[in-house]
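A quick aside before the break. I want you to see a complete sequence-to-structure record at least once, exactly as it would be stored in a machine-readable document. Don't worry about memorizing anything.
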Amino acid sequence: MTKTDSSTSSAKAELARLVAPVAGRLRLAGLLAAVSELLWAAQAALVALAIGGLLEPPVLLPIWEASAGFLALMALRALLDAAAQGLASRASTRLVATERQALLRAAARLDARASGLTPAELAALAGEKLALLGPFAARYSPAMMRSRIVPLALIAITLPFSWIAVLIFLIALPLIPIFMALIGIAAQEASERQMVQIGTLNGALVDRIAAVTDLRLIGAETRAGTDLADVFERLRARTMKVLAVAFLSSTVLELFSALGVALVAIYVGFNLLGEIPWGSWGAPLNAEAGIFLLMIAPTVFQPMRDLSAAWHDRAAALAVATELAAAKEVLAREGTLLGYGTPAPAPAPAALAWEGLNLRPAPGAAPIRFADGAIAPGEAVALSGPSGAGKTTLLAALAGLIRPDAGEIRWGETALDDESADAIRAAMGWLPQAPQFIAAPLAEAITLGRAGDLAAALKAARAEDIIAALPEGLATPLGDIGGGVSGGEARRLMLARAHHARASLILADEPTADLDAETAEAVMAGLMALRAKGAALLIASHDPTVIAACDRVITLEPGGLA
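That is the input. The structure line, written in C-alpha cells, reads:
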C-alpha cells in the first residue's frame, strides 16, 4: 500500500468515525429520498398510459385520472423530500456542532505549556474547516444512499420492457464511479493543500494584527501588507485549483450520464419507427413502453449525477478529517490543566504552600526540581532568578495551569487537584506577562459577568484614564490580545479585573517588564492597592524596584532547588 493509499484509508476511517453518531439519521434521509425518486417511475407510468393511449388507442387511462394520480404522487414526493432534507440538515448541524464543541473543550483544557496548535490554527480548524463536514453529511451521504438503491431498482423495472436499454444502463453507469474515484484522488489532494493554506492565512493575519503597532513604529506596514497579499494569492490559487477539479469532475460525469440517456432515446425512437425491431423481448415497443423508458432514463442516472455534484464535498470532508485527526493527536500529547472549568465558590484566604515540586517548562523538557515554599495571606513575595529558572512555570503550576510531575500544592489544608482546582483558582488573580481578554465589551472583559463595583476597581488600578480615552469607553471591545491599548494599559486593565474579583492571591508574571518608569509605577501602585485590601502577592520579576517593594524574595536557580 502506498503512502497516499494509507493516508486516504486513514481519512476514510476518521470520517466514518465522525459521522457514526448521525449515520442512522443520514441513512434514513437517504432512504426517504430514494423512495421519493422511485415514485417517479409511478408518475412516468401514469403519463405513459395517458399519452400512449392517445397515440395508439384504446385509451388505457383517462387524462384526468392520470393527472390526479400524478399530482398526488408529486405531493407525496415533496413531503418525502422535505423530510429527507430536514433530517440531513439537522444531522449535519449536529455533526459540526459536536465536533467543534469537542475540539474547543479539549483546547480549553490544555495546560500553560501547550504549543502544538496556535490559536490561529485552532480557529481555522474549528471555524471554516469543520463547517465543511456539513455539506458532506447533508448532501453526499444521502446522495450515496440513493445511488445504491435507485439505479438498480429502475433497471429492474426497465428489464421487462427492453433488455438493450438495461444493457446501455449497465455499460454507462459503472463508468461514472470509476472516473469519480480517479478524480477523487486529485480532488482530495487539492482540498488538503487548500486546508493548509487556510491555516497559513489565519496565522499570518493574526501575527500582523498582533504586531500592527510595532510594524507602524518601524515603518514596515507596506512590507507586511505585501507578505499578506502573497499569502492571499497562494490561497486564491489553491482555491481555484479545487474549483477546477470540481468543474472537471462534473463535466466528465455529466458527459457519461448524457450519453447514456441519449443512447436510450435513440434506441426507443428507432424501435418505435421499426428501424430497430430487436432488443424488446421479441415484439417492438408500444407507445406506452417507449414513453415510460424515455421518462425514467434520466432518473436512472440522476442519483449518480447528484453524487458527482457532491463529490467535492467528500474530498473536502476527507481533508478536514485528516487534519482533525492530526490536531487531536497533538492535543492528546499536550498536558491538561487541573480542574473541570466549572464555576465554584472561592475558599477563604489561606496560605499557599508547595512541597517536592517537579515541573517541566515544556512537554519533553527536563523537569525542574523546586525548593519548598509558601506564601501567607496578605504577604508580598518576589519570585526572582535568571531567565529559564522556571519562574513562569512555577506560577502556572501554583494556579493549576500545569500538572506537576511530582510534589504537592496546598491551599491551606486543601490539596490542589482536579476536584479543588476550580474553587482555588476562583480565589486567585492571574496576571500573565502577555495580557489576555475575552472577545467582549471591556466592561464584561473586566467583570466576567460578576457583580461588584467596577468604578472602584478601575480607580484602584489607575485605569480610569484608559477608559476615558477609548472611543466607546467600557463598551469598547478589545479582542483577546488587548488591541487598541498599550501593553502597560492592558496590564492595568487586568489589575482592575483582579480588584473587581476581590482575589485573595495575585500571581503576577513580570508585571513591569518592557514598561516605562511612569507606567511601571502605576502598575505597582495597582498591585500594592490589592495588597492593602488583604490580597497576597507572588510576583515573578527581574525588576529591582518590584523586588524591593516585597516583604521577601524567593530566588530560583537554573536547574532548580534554590
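Two observations worth writing down. DSSP finds 18 helices and ten strands in the chain. Residues 221-272 form the longest helix (52 residues). We'll return to this after the break.
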